[in-house]
Design a protein that fits this description.
Elements: H1 12-18, H2 32-42, E1 54-59, H3 63-86, H4 100-113, E2 120-127, H5 141-153, E3 157-161, H6 168-175, E4 181-183, E5 186-190, E6 200-201, H7 204-207, E7 226-227
Parallel strand pairs: 6-7
Antiparallel strand pairs: 1-2, 2-4, 2-5, 3-5
Helix pairs in contact: 2-5, 3-4, 3-6
The chain binds flavin mononucleotide.
């Protein structure tokens, strides 16, 4: 057990089903030993042929970190602003202050508005060793999920986003990211201002098939599972 491990660490299976996306953080910095423990977990992830093409660019409080947060923050505000309009976040149930839609819009707005103050910014990357292909993400996203779960286990929380996408050229220049490196996401980490808890997903029966496509398993979700109807309708 590393020094960074809290006395009451959450169990593996419980952690998996209760690691929510955390978009609001306290001002508390993430100490180096906790960050090191998270990165250790991230770098233990599987990858094709165990080539380990993933790299984690960790940005905390240096001058380049501040600039990267500023660049991504501006891109995030722009991207979220467009999505807010396009997906009608302010009409229908979104106009009702306490609806899930309105609450989500408030959380997203404060996330992007305060992006410059996220305690830790991580850019998970993949060093390409062959032409881009549809499977390459599989050699970087397990590391990202390890990172988020480890953050949870250590009392922190995080969010995987695509906020960097609209600002990639500027980021690449600032951080000297080579052309053959794929920037796979933007992860933010900090002490949650809210809390973790059971994630909401569709029932397992809708997502798991057996024998042939569309043939649902008859397994039950554990008691207390919370569901969402978000996502495309079941075909
Ligand atoms: C590929 C991918 C891209 C995502 N992009 C964003 C994003 O750009 N901004 C954001 O706030 N959250 C983003 N998320 C987080 C999802 O919105 C979140 O996981 C989902 O709403 C479920 O919420 P939960 O993790 O709290 O259960 C992304 C997640 C994934 C896996």
């Amino acid at each position: 057990m590393s020094n960074a491990t809290p006395a009451e660490s959450v169990g593996l299976l419980e952690g998996i089903s209760t690691t929510r996306t955390i978009r609001r953080y306290t001002d508390e910095p993430v100490p180096d030993d906790a960050l090191a423990a998270m990165m250790f977990a991230a770098t233990r992830a599987p990858s094709g042929s165990n080539r380990q093409p993933f790299r984690m660019l960790v940005l905390t409080d240096g001058p380049k970190a501040a600039e990267a947060k500023r660049i991504i923050g501006a891109a995030a505000r722009e991207t979220w602003g467009e999505k807010r309009r396009r997906d009608s976040y302010d009409t229908g149930s979104g106009a009702v202050a306490d609806s899930p839609k309105a609450r989500m819009a408030r959380v997203m707005q404060s996330y992007v508005d305060d992006f410059e103050s996220v305690p830790v910014l991580v850019l998970p990357c993949l060093v390409r060793y062959r032409a881009p292909n549809s499977l390459e993400g599989a050699s970087v996203y397990p590391a990202v999920q390890n990172l988020l779960l480890a953050a949870r286990g250590l009392g922190y929380g995080g969010a995987l986003t695509a906020w960097h996408a609209a600002a990639e050229p500027e980021l690449r220049e600032l951080l000297e990211i080579p052309d053959d490196v794929f920037v796979a996401g933007t992860v933010t980490i900090g002490k949650p201002a809210g809390s973790h808890g059971p994630v909401r997903r569709r029932p397992m029966r809708e997502l798991v098939y057996t024998e042939s496509w569309g043939e649902s398993v008859d397994w039950e979700d554990p008691p207390g599972t919370r569901f969402t109807s978000a996502g495309p309708p079941k075909r």
